[in-house]
């Protein structure tokens, strides 16, 4: 954004300078710039115009190329973000293990009788117990 602004203001100053030189020439009836300098400037302007016309075809191909490069860049950025998120997740788990007084958590058996009955019922061991008790349900 800064580069185009700089180019714009330099061009604006150049155009203003040309108008000032033209005004000076008309007012004082003198040639401000030598004819040799004007001829060289004209030659460079013609070369620049030819170069710009030749590059017009290349610039027409540019949007497709930029779209592809943008797609590749976004894809690579997404992969790197996922890799970084995975790294952060691993580090968070390591930190939690380090801070915790239980470095390796092992599940203990519950002390609650109700929870024991529920887990036995889920595992299907209560059906085996009820068949041994004469088919009587709790």
Quick overview of this protein structure:
This protein has 138 residues and is mainly α. It has helices spanning 2-28, 35-99, 113-123, 125-132.
Kindly describe this structure.
- The chain has helices at residues 2-28, 35-99, 113-123, 125-132.
- With 138 residues, it is an all-alpha fold.
- It is built from four helices and no strands.
- It has a domain at 13-87.
- The mean pLDDT is 80.
- Helix content is 80%, strand content 0%.
**C-alpha end-to-end distance:** 78 Å
- E-strand count: 0
Radius of gyration: 41 Å
Instruction: State mean pLDDT (0 to 100 scale).
Output: 80
Return the structural class: mainly alpha
Q: Could you spell the SSE succession in H and E letters?
A: HHHH
Give helix % range: over 70%
Described by the principal axes of the CA atoms, the overall outline is rod-shaped
Question: How many helices in DSSP terms?
Answer: 4
Q: Summarize the biggest pleated sheet.
A: none
Please indicate the percent range of residues in DSSP E strands (runs of 2 or more): under 5%
Which residue ranges are poorly predicted, with pLDDT under 50 across at least 5 consecutive positions?
Answer: none
Give the key terms.
80% helix, 138 residues, 4 helices, mainly alpha
Any chance you could write out the topology, listing elements then pairs?
Elements: H1 2-28, H2 35-99, H3 113-123, H4 125-132
